[in-house]
Queue: 4 jobs
Job 1
Amino acid sequence: MSKETTAEVLVGEGPVRLELHADGVAHLRLNRPDAANGLNVELLRALHEAVLRIHGDGRVRAVLLSGEGKHFCAGGDVHTFLSKGEALPDYIRVATALLQLATAALIRLNPPVVAAVQGFAAGGGGMGLVCSSDFVVAGESTRFLAGATRVAMVPDAGVSVTLTQLVGFRRAMDILMLNPTLTAAEAKEIGLITRVVADEQLMDEAWSLARQLAAGAPAALANTKRLLWNGIGQGVEAAMPEENHIQALLSGMADAREGLSAVIEKRAPRFTGR
């Protein structure tokens, strides 16, 4: 796997790990491989706290989100859910609230988020994290499954909105209500994910994309991301004043002048975030 040799460990133990690499890429890892990174309250709380830590660290230029082990995320931890018996609704309320906080925080992060997905991405957790990431790279053997209605529940983590935006209303209805297992190629074809690569190239490709984003103009990328997410459900004309305001703001930054100079001089830009 191609990555920086030096990294600052920000969260070094527990169900979520977080490291900041010298190139400005924060590597956020789900760390319950023995449970297929199934989401329980402990992991979800740790995930939300880690995303908030990224949010407060101005050194982060891009985020790489991955899951340890064979699977990216198999969704909610069904064994934990079943063990709660009649107390399950109370547990689900907490777990769902934490999942919503975590996925909303990913969407609201300034740095772009690249998800590297292998094995299964399933349930509200797996699909929710995929749908709330800005870029998704999947290995060719990866499978995607909504699965909520299969256990008599409904999609959460905003999937009822984000999936519709990604793949369209009719396809989202099919995915969420009939629960087909999608191949990586099918997910790419319908717009659920960004790229499909050979399994053995997954992390190299994801790291390469994260580094490419980290080398970009941070304010321009952050505001482009915000415009796109805010544009969901918004009319085109309603978005234009915000676009104009941000464009004028960014054009006064040194990064904009550097970008223009680099085009004229036919060289790679050197963005500083100023």
Job 2
Amino acid sequence: MPDKRGRASSACKSVALAAVLTAASLFPVPIGASTIDVPVSARLLSGFEVGTSQKRFGKLEFVGGMVMSAPEKLFGAISSIRFRPDGEEFVAVLDTGHWLTGRVTRDARGALSGLADARITPMLDMSGREPPRKMEMDAEGLALRDGKVFVSYEQRHRIDIYPDPGFATSKPLARLPYLIPNNELRHNGGMEALAVSPADSPLGGALVVVAEKSIDADGNLLAAILEGPLKGTFAVTHHPSFDVTDGAFLPNGDLLLLERRFNFAEGVGMRIRRIRGGDIRPGAVVDGEILMEAGMAYQIDNMEGMDVVKGPDGSTRLIIVSDDNHSFLQRNLMLEFKLVE
């Protein structure tokens, strides 16, 4: 296990390279590809903080994690992940314009132990074809609801709706208006978090979207409730250094936001912020408590995707994944935490 200084240096180099790769869109999208079965190997993580056996971090308890690898070059670049009600089967989107499906496996303790039945399929556009350029299918946000899969894209900003089941081989059925003016969304910092609120919450099952870096005149992140009686735009306080990369609702209606930090002064970081569900309404500027924050001394990378699931023991769990940008300097991580109230 490398020391903290070595891990910090590697993390800085990896994210710096990732930024170059992302900005240049250097990773080609294969044309004419079909579904690929992907064998995934997993190296389990014994702890979250390097060199310690500590389990409690803020209001979260580390359950387990793993570093995932596969011989298939398309594996990686995970932007968002959503689990089915069983807490095992999942759907994920890659920012290269691909679907990733599969299921997690668990050991006798109920901790993550691997991935099974992993498959990668290219996403289709409105014409039913695979676009030749990554920027056309830069998938960032994902939501599942009522037999539909919703995907938010940046660069070519939109929210497409696919059928469920059948999303992997179908073109979008329709598009969902996202309320935020298109000229306010940054080219590579648009609608990053797309989440479905609980049906019995004040938002009544409506979709909510939060931008990664697109801000209003006061420097707050642009956001919107896309449906229902509270339909309208709101804003999320933008804390310096951190950008939103995904979001998921707790059963009680509170919204969790996954945020990522990278700068040369502070290095790589990850944190999770909790927004009270009752605060989310049109015209509001919302903020919330930090449940957990981690830096380069922890097992993190470019953390991009997060979902809330019910654990085998009935507890509320958070599963977080990283986007390796298809860089050999980065890792595909999956981490699991238990929410400790």
Job 3
Amino acid sequence: MIIHRKTLAALAVNPRRHYVSAPLHPRKQTDPGQMTEASDSETGFLEALGQRVRTMRALRGMSRKVLARVSGISERYIAQLESGKGNVSIVLLRRVSGAMGAHLEDLIPETEPAPDWAVIRDLLRKATPAQIAQAKEVLAGGDQSGQRRMAFAGIALIGLRGAGKSTLGRMLAKKIGWSFVELNKEIETQNGLSVAEIIALYGQDGFRRMEQAALTQLLARKEPMVLATGGGIVAEPLTFELILSSFYTVWIKAEPEEHMARVRGQGDLRPMADDRSAMTELRNILVSREPLYARANAVVDTAGLTVDAAASRLVDAVAPVLHDKHAFGLRSAAS
């Protein structure tokens, strides 16, 4: 279908207007009811976009101030974007895509897309949940039936900073005779840089790539371990999926006030330094990540517990997998 520029412009102003040969005068011919409906739709779109930005920022554990500094965008603009008052140009782009009967993402150029990507994308849009699940398993390394061939790597502790993952993980590893590994320390060792230096030099994307590489190298050792992960690992879908499929995962959780007190006690407020609303940001991060943390095999709530009591609760939580790894569809490294 060929659409002339003038026609496209008119349709973008009012997507419901049908093409006619007579000149179009949108402002004179537009039905006020249609304009109100379009305005409501665009408001909802901007609000959803703002919510998406807020959620993504919280998943990555970034305050608004940090995001503004890293992105070079004013904190005021980010606040507007998150409140649903973002740059109107995205609305115009949405109108254009709607006028052409296309998806908004279809107008965004891909970076060297695979030749068949357009076909794969459209097939995924029409696929059933079961078909999507099977495709994910195959792409992640499973066989044609979708069965993952993954060896059991041990126990992984997930949760927000200050939950006690390192302290409890070290105690658990000592008790069961496994090695203990902190993923962030492993990243630093493999790259010869601190986490802060990696982020400063390569950004969040660079750090996530190194995180996945470090995890892959750890899995290649084929020996059971107790792994303490970084709080933001859930923000990287592929890496988190690798954790969930390779380890028996335990969510170590606590109250926000306890998280903050422990982090302050460690002298580390990254990435909430110099932010007066640090507690609010921490709560937002926790709320955004909770659905992902909840995918763990077990949960250990350390709120109000002593270290010894929390350690005992963790031992109880992992007892089933230590007794029978096969009960969770996991294979030991020796099998």
Job 4
Amino acid sequence: MALDLDIDRIRRLVGEGVRDKVYPGAVWAVGDRSNMVIGTPGVLDPDRPDEPMRHDTVFDVGGLTEILAVWSAVGSLVEDGKLHLDEQLGVFWPEVRGHPLGRVTTRHLLTHTAGGPPLTDLGDLYGTHPRDIRDGVLHEDLRCPPGEAVEYTDRAALVLGFLAEELSGQSLDVLAATRVWQPLGMTRTCYGPLPDEAAARCAPTELDDSTGTRLRGTAHGSQARLLGGVCGSSGVFSVLPDLAAFLRHVLQPGQDGGQPGFGPAWVRESLRIRTGDLSPAGGLFWHPAPGTVAGTDDIWVPDGSTGAGAWLSPQQGRWAVLLTNELYYARDPEPLGHVRDAFRSLAFA
């Protein structure tokens, strides 16, 4: 059955973002468990106007790393019985025992109720050595007692990435690849920096002051660059077909032929309000899409997703993706935010 969409309005909307220089180009799709509509307006790089966006253009997906790598890896550990959501980290993780983070649970981190510091430049705080950064993040003070307030911070994904590595004995890139990406056939999803051939097919982002060139195949997230390319909050590169495979699995776990580490139980646990009476309401690393009614519209968006947008609705059996390289022009999130909100409204009308 074909998707019931106003495709022309979606095309005009995303195309206007190119015209208005919100982003050089975009790759978008709306799909269900078997159908998909795709659009690819604009160019890969304004300096190379004869090279259009393509459905398989590689993107730095930024905050989607938290879902593609960390949420998935944590889900596999929970379903394997290696991690319990409500056990304090200090009980089983010597590295945080006796520190403020030791009183925090995995559920606190997944709901952003751990009370940790907000977004900060880790290099300014802890220096540039990965060991010093890890120690600083894991031994930091809390702003408030766990469970008292909801405040998004990408440190939650950093901590959970370190935890997943500790419990699995694997680096996060290997764990995500072997437990999630490879089983789902996500052959072009990986952490950077990318090899030259793959980087050439990657949408460039912001200007690197140290080289005077655009970042292309190297993560724009400073945390990932400081930590050698692999961390919980950023660093993953992917393509539309891979993201479609991932979101289809989340909509219908275990019925797509893949055997990733997380299944229906983890999806059900995550796509429900888990913040109680606290506001803003959220699930586990997912929250109701802005402009929707929690518990009624059933449209979810990953926490922390910025330039790369992904949405899904179990109720409608539908998913949507909007990939852009808006950082090519500016870091101001507002213009893209308007496009994303309108895109979501049309995709789930």
